[in-house]
């Protein structure tokens, strides 16, 4: 790994651990010497991206990275074009809505909006990259790919992720039963798959006039509230939102790697 690659890897690791990690664990995850890890962290700290509250303490990201991200989304017109669409769907459904975008085969969460105003709230810290085998966004994405490409992406991530729900697919056959249902209806639906007690539905965002996936949009909430009947009620609104995102944002730089 080049130094710049290592620095990016440090940021990605810390992004998954809001309360930080000790130097030793970062070094182990990167499989590089602790002395090299210390130099990387020192450089990132000097640039304001990482902080350490006391000597020997855990390293964690600062708000600077978030600010850079927001600045990019604003400069690229992502916030002004796409956020209102996601906000509107969240308001219509009263649930958590997430827009994920395709980036060189990966599906990355980019924008979300919480529509629930009371009662049970579903708003997990899911990380940036979507786990394809056990999420509605993942199933929706796989449903518009050729089977060989879908298999390659699943193989890269692996299956049987620890902590997945009781109904999560445990093998390729079970996974593609979910994917095939999503392919037939245009909407992926899961119940107690990603996390026990939660349900979600998702649909692909396709480049206008093609079958090229730009991303996916999901609606998720507690299973006690997100029933199959409620999903039926949201189906048209979800598909309309996917179409609106595609039409409003197909030329945005965030979709260039789709």
UniProtKB/TrEMBL annotation:
Gene3D superfamilies: 3.30.450.40, Winged helix-like DNA-binding domain superfamily/Winged helix DNA-binding domain. It comes from the Bacteria. The keyword Transcription regulation applies. InterPro entries: ArsR-like_HTH, GAF-like_dom_sf, HTH_MetabolicPath_Reg, Tscrpt_reg_IclR_C, Tscrpt_reg_IclR_N, WH-like_DNA-bd_sf, WH_DNA-bd_sf. Pfam families: HTH_IclR (PF09339), IclR_C (PF01614). The keyword DNA-binding applies. SMART domains: HTH_ICLR (SM00346). Keywords: DNA-binding, Plasmid, Transcription, Transcription regulation. Residues 1-63 form the HTH iclR-type domain. PROSITE patterns: HTH_ICLR (PS51077), ICLR_ED (PS51078). Residues 64-251 form the IclR-ED domain. PANTHER family: HELIX-TURN-HELIX TRANSCRIPTIONAL REGULATOR, ICLR FAMILY (PTHR30136), HTH-TYPE TRANSCRIPTIONAL REGULATOR RV1719 (PTHR30136:SF35). This is IclR family transcriptional regulator. The lineage of its organism: Bacteria, Pseudomonadati, Pseudomonadota, Alphaproteobacteria, Hyphomicrobiales.
